[in-house]
Amino acid sequence: MNHRFPVRVYYEDTDAAGIVYYANYFRFMERARTEWLRDLGYEQDELRSRLGLVFVVRRVEADYLAPARFNDLLWIDSRLEKAGRSSLDLAQAVSLQSDGRLLCRGKVKLVAVDIERFRPVAVPEEILEKMNHAG
Q1: Distances (CA, A) of 44 to 22, 57, 63, 79
Q2: Is 15 assigned a catalytic role?
């Protein structure tokens, strides 16, 4: 994977059964994507104000393999699988830090859009280059 981000499971992340509520895996993955961009030198609010560009989720899917529980330490790994002119296909994985057990696999398609017209625009080449060489 190209980027690794740590997450601790808080009580608020769990459901009545004491396991991470399924939708929260998407929140963990979103944080990891934001931190990956930040680590590459791009703040999302600066991309919006400087370039008029935001990344929006076009498609997302997840396979849940095992539950995470309160206080678990997790790794969220992210990798660029494919880049189109205006889109990024990312693979993400959630695993336990303690033993590396894979808990959830996700795929996310992001599209770069012009914030004014909300139409697809090219992903900046410098971002693609950094993502391809990260890790």
Answers
A1: 25, 14, 27, 18
A2: yes
**Residue pair 57/109 in contact by the 8 Å Cβ criterion:** yes
Tell me what the mean pLDDT of segment 121-134 comes to: 89
User: In Å, how far from its chain's centre is CA 89?
Assistant: 11
Q: Which helix (H) or strand (E) holds 105?
A: strand 102-114
DSSP strand pairing (53-64 vs 3-8): unpaired
Query: What's the rounded Cα separation, in Å, for the pair 106 and 126?
Result: 25
Q: Which residues pair with 67 in a beta bridge?
A: none
* Residue span of the structural domain in which 77 resides: 3-133
Inter-residue contact 7 to 41 (CB < 8 Å): no
Tally of domains within the chain: 1
Which residue among 15, 77, 89, 99 is the active-site one?
A: 15
What CATH number is associated with residue 7?
3.10.129.10
Q: What is the pTM of this model?
A: 0.92
Reference 124, options 32, 36, 53; nearest CA is 53
Residues 24-55 have pLDDT tens digits of: 999 999 999 999 999 999 999 999 999 999 99
